[in-house]
């Protein structure tokens, strides 16, 4: 009476809720490049970036029919000239490529198929901002509280140093 057993779906929900409740210091966002249009030709990706803030930790998702396009992360010169890197190990081509933004700064991406970059605007440049850090609610100024810390015998600071050596061994003798 009153007891309910968790069905698998419910326990999954509990799990998801638990994850949502765990405090985190950053908030990562997923950006579907081109939104519902995805990663394709003849789309204005520079307009797509307008009004979006990209931060370290966010993820770009390039979606396209596998085999029709790919994604190369390139540098500014390669971007400008649509130069496809010869190292094919740099190519993403799963059709649902997730790129995590790891560092702040300018990031460039092009499609390496045919002339999609050069003639059909399949190129994207974004500016990545430093990560968003959620700062916990500011605590009152940390005044030494007699009740908070471990009981440490206070010893008068040595006048030679002006500071107090921490109790316990600070180094290990051989
Ligand atoms: Cu393409």
From TrEMBL:
The keyword Disulfide bond applies. One of its GO terms (cellular component) is plasma membrane. Keywords: Copper, Disulfide bond, Electron transport, Glycoprotein, Membrane, Metal-binding, Signal, Transmembrane, Transmembrane helix, Transport. It is found in: Membrane. GO terms for biological process: response to symbiotic fungus. PROSITE patterns: PHYTOCYANIN. It is a single-pass type I membrane protein. Residues 1-28 form the signal peptide. Gene3D superfamilies: Cupredoxins - blue copper proteins. It holds the Pfam family Cu_bind_like. Residues 29-130 form the Phytocyanin domain. One of its GO terms (molecular function) is metal ion binding. Residues 138-174 are annotated as: Disordered. InterPro entries: Cupredoxin, Phytocyanin-like, Phytocyanin_dom. Its main location: membrane. This is Phytocyanin domain-containing protein.
């Amino acid at each position: 009476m009153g007891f309910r057993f968790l069905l698998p779906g419910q326990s999954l929900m509990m799990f998801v809720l638990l994850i949502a409740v765990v405090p985190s210091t950053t908030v990562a966002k997923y950006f579907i490049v081109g939104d519902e249009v995805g990663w394709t030709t003849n789309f204005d990706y520079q307009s797509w970036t307008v009004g979006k803030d990209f931060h370290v930790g966010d993820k770009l998702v390039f979606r396209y029919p596998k085999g029709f396009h790919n994604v190369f992360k390139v540098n500014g010169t390669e971007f400008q000239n649509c130069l496809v890197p010869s190292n094919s190990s740099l190519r993403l081509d799963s059709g649902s490529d997730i790129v995590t933004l790891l560092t702040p700064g300018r990031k460039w991406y092009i499609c390496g198929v045919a002339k999609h970059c050069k003639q059909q605007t399949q190129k994207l440049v974004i500016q990545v901002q430093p990560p968003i850090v959620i700062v916990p609610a500011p605590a009152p100024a940390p005044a030494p509280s007699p009740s908070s810390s471990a009981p440490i015998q206070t010893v008068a600071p040595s006048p030679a140093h002006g500071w107090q050596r921490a109790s316990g061994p600070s180094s290990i003798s051989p």
